[in-house]
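Lay summary

Proteins are chains of building blocks that fold into shapes. Our project writes down both the chain and a compact code for its shape. Here are two examples, one after the other.
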Amino acid sequence: MDNREIIVGVSGYDFDAAHYTEHSTRKCLNLHGHTYRVNVRVKGWINPGTGMVLDFLELKRVVKSVIDDYDHKLIVPRKDLGKLRLEGPFNTELKVLDYPYATTEYIALSIAREIYDRLRLPVMVELYEGSRNHVVVYYPPERWSRVEQ
């Protein structure tokens, strides 16, 4: 029996959302949107009863469920909730982050934490903001070795 941890993943999930980025260019402080692409990996041991770390169908279901909560929303940090004033002939659905900023880094960390909370397996999230910019988050970081990162 092999006792190594195995990494399994799914790729190519996407969602559209808006945010604003403080401490960046004036341009990025404006509300603006992106198409985000998400790739996810989880790490665990093979279950001898199933021969799998995790059924791909379950991983896909969890990833889709998490990112659906971000899709077509305005992503804001909790600290800014009392400062928002949105009105108009449109929906004002928000995705609130429990992080100080709605940067791509914190959005990826939030997604990773939500997937981890559901699966209880270490998670790596690769989040693309558009086609050229991306971040990689390992959650929880202590469960990933330097070699794997």
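And here is the second example, written the same way.
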Amino acid sequence: MPDIPAKKKAVALRYDATQGPAPKIVAKGTGEIAEKIIALAKEHGIPIQEDADLVEILAKLNLNADIPPDTYLVVAEILAFIYRANTKMTPS
């Protein structure tokens, strides 16, 4: 029996220090919805970081939920990646 490919999953986070202490889940989905989330991120120049394990954890949360404290370290690494990417893209 052939392997059935897993549906693509995506979770979008937003972090605004004035709105709370932790990033929030602002979009999530599988299949076509995940593809649309990814396409919109690319269209708007939003950096994308792939981490299947983290997506599995975050996809279980409700929209507008704060990320759980046990994911802070991984999400901080992603935010650092985004910061570095934005710094490289910003003209001096």
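What can we say about the second shape? The beta strands are 9-14, 24-30.
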